[in-house]
Every structure is written in C-alpha cells, then in structure tokens.
Amino acid sequence: MSHPGNDSLNELRFDELMDEMYDEVIDSTMEDTIPDHIVEQLRELTEIPLYLYKECREEGMDQKTAVKETFKRFYE
Predict the structure, then answer these.
(1) Percentage of the chain exceeding pLDDT 70
(2) Which of 8, 21, 26, 40: CA 20 to 30 A from 58?
(3) Which domain holds residue 7?
(4) What is the mean pLDDT of the chain?
(5) DSSP string covering 21-64, please?
(6) Are residues 22 and 50 both part of a single domain?
(7) Arithmetic mean of pLDDT, 62-74
(8) Is 6 helix (H, G, I), strand (E, B) or coil?
C-alpha cells in the first residue's frame, strides 16, 4: 500500500523525467536540423524587443507606454 505523500513524489519524479527527456529531444533535434549560425541569429532576434524596451525606458517612458512603443518599433 502506498502512502499519500508517495503519489505526489512519484508524480514529481515522473514530471522531472519527462522534462529531461523532452529537453534532450529538443536539443538533439535543434543540433541536427538547424545550423549553429542560424540558432545564434535567432537568439539575437529574440533579444531585439528587450533592447527596444530598455531604450524606451531610458527615454523616460512608463512601463505601459514603453511596452506599446516597443511593439510599434519592433514591427516598423
């Protein structure tokens, strides 16, 4: 007979194992199909909104306005 605490512990271990397996599959798939220089370019692309937001905040915009302006600048 299992103890009530064991079920949640087993679920946690299962979730951790599934996460690890998923990460391994994604990592191996990315390595096999996407060249390193493309991966690096995509990483840089995802950082653009962060730079734009920081720029807006440095210009004195409040958070809400900076987010709207970041969106606008990103798609211009």
Answers:
(1) 74
(2) 40
(3) 1-33
(4) 81
(5) HHHHHHHHHHHHHS-HHHHHHHHHHHHHHHHHHHHHHHTT--HH
(6) no
(7) 94
(8) helix
Return the C-alpha torsion angle 29, 46, 74, 71, nearest 10: 100
Same domain, 27 and 43: no
Q: What is the predicted pLDDT for the residue at 3?
A: 55
| Three-state DSSP state, 75 | coil
Q: Which pair of structure tokens corresponds to residue 60?
A: 């004195």
Dihedral class, residue 60 (left if φ above 0, else alpha if ψ from -120 to 50, else beta): left
> Considering the entire predicted model, what is its pTM?
0.49
Residues 22 and 46 in one domain: no
Summarised one tens digit per residue, pLDDT across range 12-32 is 677 777 777 777 776 666 556
Q: Which residue has the tokens 């909104």?
A: 49
